[in-house]
Design goal:
Elements: H1 14-40, E1 42-45, E2 52-54, E3 56-60, E4 63-79, E5 84-89, E6 96-97, E7 102-107, H2 109-169, H3 175-232, E8 235-237, E9 242-247, E10 254-255, E11 260-277, E12 289-294, E13 297-311, E14 314-322, E15 334-340, E16 345-351, H4 355-359, E17 363-367, E18 373-378, E19 380-384, E20 388-393, E21 400-402, E22 414-417
Parallel strand pairs: 1-22
Antiparallel strand pairs: 2-21, 3-16, 4-11, 4-15, 5-7, 5-10, 6-9, 7-8, 9-11, 11-14, 12-13, 12-15, 13-14, 16-20, 17-18, 17-21, 18-22, 19-20
Helix pairs in contact: 2-3
C-alpha cells in the first residue's frame, strides 16, 4: 500500500507577485514624481532677498508723476504789427519796462510815401472844398441881389397897377392902358415865383456838391488817419509793465508784419507748464489738482488751462499755485508733480514692485500663512499710481505676495522660502 504524498502549497503564486510588483512600481513612480516632478517646478529662495507685501483695502487715488516748468504768470509776445526795417532800439533785452515805454522803431518807406501822398491829396481836396464854399456864398449873394431887384420892380409895378385900376374905374384911362399895367404886374409876379424856384434848385445842387466834397474830405482824412496810425505802430511800445526777457532785433534787420520780435514777462507771479503723455488726454481736465515738494514743504497746484494739441506723443497744461507760492521759486525751475487723475475711491491695493516687469500684472507668488512657501496665482490689476496697483481679482485683503523682481525665478510654480 503506497503512502499518500503531502502536496506543498506554493507560497508566491505568479498572480500575487504581479500585484506586489505593480504596487511597488506605483510607489516608486509616486516617490520619483514627488522628488523629481515637483522639484522641476519648485525653487528654493532666500526670504531676506525678497520683498513681501500685504494686500490691503484702503483709499485709492490715481495720480501720475509729471514734470513742470516754472513760467511767469503772464507772458506777452511783442510782434511787429507793421513790417519794416529796424531803425532804432530804445531798450535792450534783460531790462525792466513800464507800460507804454518805447522798445524799438521800424522804418517803412512805402508807408511814409503813401502817407505823404495822401496828405497832399487831402490838402488839395480841402482847398477845393473851401473854394466851392466861397463860390456858393458869392452865388447866394448874387441870387439875393437878383431877387431883391425883382421884388423892387414888382413893388413899383404893384403901385402902378393899383393906381391904374382906380383911374380905369373912374373912366380916366383906356382899358388898353389898364390891361398893359395889369399884364406887367402879373408877369413880374410869375417871374418872381419862377426865379425863387430856379434859385432853390440851383442852391440844392450846389449844396449837394459841397456835401459830396465834404464826404470825400472826411473819407480821405479817415484814410490818412489809418496810414498815420500804421506809421505810429512802427514804434513798438511795451503793452504791459514787466521784464523784457527777449528782443530779437538788430539795426537794419527786416521784420515782416506779425513776426514775433520779443517777450515781456509779468513779474506778479508764476505758473507751471507741464507736458503729459497723450494716453491721459481725455482724463486731464481743468480743475485737476497736483502736488509737489519744494524746500521740504508740500504745495498744491491746479490745472487752469489745457492745450489739446498733441506733439510728439504729449500735450500740455498750465497750472497755477493754490494759495501761497513757494518762497524762492524762480522762472525756469523744474518741479516734480503728482497729478491726480480721479476722485479718491475705496479699493484693494498691492504695493508696486519689480514683479510687474516679468508678469505684466497677470500673476504673482502668494505666500502661505506659515510663510515657508509661495505659490503662483493668476490675478487681475486695474488702475495704478506711483505707489500702488488696484487689485480687481485674485487676491484677498491680508494675503501676502512677493512684490520684488521675479527675474531669477523662471517659470516656477512654487517657491520654498528659506
Amino acid at each position: 500500500m503506497g503512502m499518500d504524498r503531502k502536496i506543498k502549497k506554493k507560497k508566491w503564486p505568479p498572480k500575487k507577485i504581479a500585484t506586489f510588483a505593480a504596487a511597488g512600481l506605483f510607489v516608486i513612480v509616486v516617490i520619483y514624481m514627488l522628488i523629481f516632478g515637483v522639484s522641476k517646478s519648485t525653487l528654493n529662495v532666500k526670504a531676506e532677498r525678497l520683498t513681501i507685501s500685504t494686500v490691503t483695502r484702503g483709499p485709492f487715488q490715481e495720480f501720475i508723476p509729471i514734470m513742470g516748468n516754472v513760467l511767469p504768470i503772464y507772458q506777452f509776445y511783442l510782434s511787429a504789427e507793421e513790417g519794416g526795417t529796424v531803425e532804432e532800439i530804445y531798450i535792450e533785452a534783460g531790462n525792466v519796462v513800464e507800460k507804454g515805454d518805447k522798445i524799438l522803431k521800424l522804418a517803412n518807406t512805402d508807408l511814409l510815401i503813401n502817407s505823404m501822398w495822401r496828405e497832399a491829396e487831402l490838402f488839395q481836396q480841402v482847398n477845393n472844398l473851401r473854394n466851392t464854399r466861397l463860390d456858393m456864398e458869392r452865388y447866394r449873394l448874387q441870387l439875393s441881389q437878383e431877387l431883391a431887384n425883382i421884388d423892387n420892380d414888382l413893388q413899383q409895378q404893384k403901385r402902378t397897377f393899383e393906381r391904374y385900376q382906380k383911374l380905369f374905374d373912374d373912366d380916366l384911362i383906356s382899358e388898353h392902358e389898364y390891361e398893359l399895367a395889369k399884364d406887367q404886374f402879373e408877369y413880374l409876379k410869375k417871374r418872381r415865383k419862377l426865379t425863387v424856384e430856379s434859385q432853390q434848385k440851383d442852391l440844392e445842387f450846389r449844396e449837394s456838391q459841397v456835401e459830396a466834397l465834404e464826404e470825400q474830405v472826411n473819407r480821405m482824412q479817415g484814410n490818412l488817419n489809418v496810414i498815420q496810425g500804421r506809421l505810429e505802430k512802427l514804434t513798438i511800445r511795451a503793452p504791459v509793465s514787466g521784464h523784457l526777457t527777449a528782443l530779437e532785433a538788430e539795426i537794419g534787420q527786416s521784420k515782416s508784419a506779425g513776426q514775433n520780435i520779443g517777450q515781456i514777462d509779468v513779474l506778479d507771479g508764476f505758473r507751471v507748464r507741464a507736458g503729459i503723455d497723450e494716453h491721459y488726454l481725455a482724463r486731464v481736465e481743468v480743475g485737476r489738482s497736483g502736488e509737489f515738494e519744494f524746500a521740504g514743504e508740500k504745495y498744491q497746484l491746479e490745472v487752469t488751462k489745457k492745450y489739446p494739441e498733441v506733439t510728439e506723443g504729449r500735450f500740455e497744461v498750465d497750472m497755477e499755485f493754490v494759495g501761497e507760492e513757494p518762497e524762492g521759486i524762480t522762472r525756469g525751475q523744474t518741479l516734480h508733480i503728482r497729478l491726480e487723475l480721479g476722485d479718491i475711491s475705496e479699493a484693494l491695493l498691492v504695493p508696486k514692485g519689480g514683479f510687474y516687469q516679468t508678469t505684466g500684472g497677470n500673476w504673482v507668488y502668494v505666500v502661505n500663512e506659515s510663510g515657508d512657501t509661495a505659490l503662483k496665482r493668476r490675478i487681475r490689476l486695474g488702475r495704478q499710481n506711483p505707489d500702488v496697483y488696484e487689485v480687481l481679482d485674485g487676491l484677498q485683503p491680508g494675503e501676502k505676495v512677493i512684490t520684488s523682481s521675479y527675474e531669477s525665478f523662471g517659470d516656477m510654480e512654487r517657491l520654498v522660502l528659506k
